[in-house]
Automatic annotation (TrEMBL):
UniProt keywords, alphabetically: DNA-binding, Phosphoprotein, Transcription, Transcription regulation, Two-component regulatory system
Protein name: Response regulator transcription factor
Domain OmpR/PhoB-type: 124-223
Entries under PANTHER family matching the protein: REGULATOR OF RPOS (PTHR48111)
Top-rank lineage group of the source organism: Bacteria
UniProt xrefs under CDD domains: trans_reg_C
GO process annotations (BP): regulation of DNA-templated transcription
Location of the Response regulatory domain: 2-116
Length: 223
């Protein structure tokens, strides 16, 4: 799962990033308005943590840009501005939640999980398709009643595809989601193949009723 932190306070940015990385999230960041707008319009995130006061612009204007461009990016506002007016305006524009600074990292994590669950899982704590079940909070995968062990990339690929069964997903989009935004600058994306090959093998060995189909030159589809 990939999170974008839009925050100009360097110490806070680093603290939040380090904490969320320990929780196995992939973190991207932007420290000013222009960089943030470029990120949210170019890439997709499971959750955006958005500061209101930014060098070069206002975080609420980023929400307006997302709304204008019809980009469905889940957003949690993080701001020292704790007035009712700011909260209401942010939520009206399109934010999903509002957390005032200073905050406890444990509460931040709970809010992030709640937002992702509402957006990606339709409120369900687990994701199921055929006989495979993922518990994102525990990063646990079960086939039937058996646990299977996946490495971080294998799990993230399966999670991404489980949310989109029977949909052909481009290789570049999978790479950006699992490896990070700048992966689109790589010479090639052959490294995805080895991870999916191992994932397919583990699913087959566990007797899963799902498989990952490669569409040559395009991407992959969960079937």
């Amino acid at each position: 799962m990939k999170i974008l932190i839009i925050e100009d306070e360097v110490e806070l940015l680093h603290n939040v990033q380090e904490f969320l990385e320990q929780e196995s999230y992939l973190i991207e960041s932007a420290t000013n308005y222009d960089a943030a707008v470029e990120k949210v319009l170019s890439y997709q995130y499971d959750c955006v943590l958005l500061d209101i006061m930014l060098p070069g612009g206002n975080g609420l204007d980023i929400l307006r840009v997302l709304k204008k461009e019809k980009k469905d990016q889940p957003v949690l506002i993080l701001s020292a501005k704790d007035s009712v007016e700011d909260k209401v305006l942010g939520l009206e524009i399109g934010a999903d939640d509002y957390l005032a600074k200073p905050f406890h990292l444990s509460e931040l994590l709970a809010r992030v999980k709640s937002i992702i669950r509402r957006h990606m899982h339709h409120g369900n704590p687990v994701i199921s398709y055929k006989d495979v079940t993922l518990n994102p909070d525990l990063r646990q995968v079960q086939i039937g009643d058996r646990d299977i062990t996946l490495n971080r990339k294998e799990y993230d690929i399966l999670y991404y595809l489980m949310l989109r069964p029977n949909k052909l997903m481009e290789k570049t989009t999978i790479a950006e989601t699992v490896w990070g935004d700048n992966i689109d600058q790589a010479d090639n994306l052959d490294f995805i193949y080895s991870q999916i090959k191992n994932l397919k093998r583990k699913l087959k060995e566990a007797g899963a009723q799902i498989d990952i189909q490669a569409v040559y030159g395009v991407g992959y589809k969960l079937i």
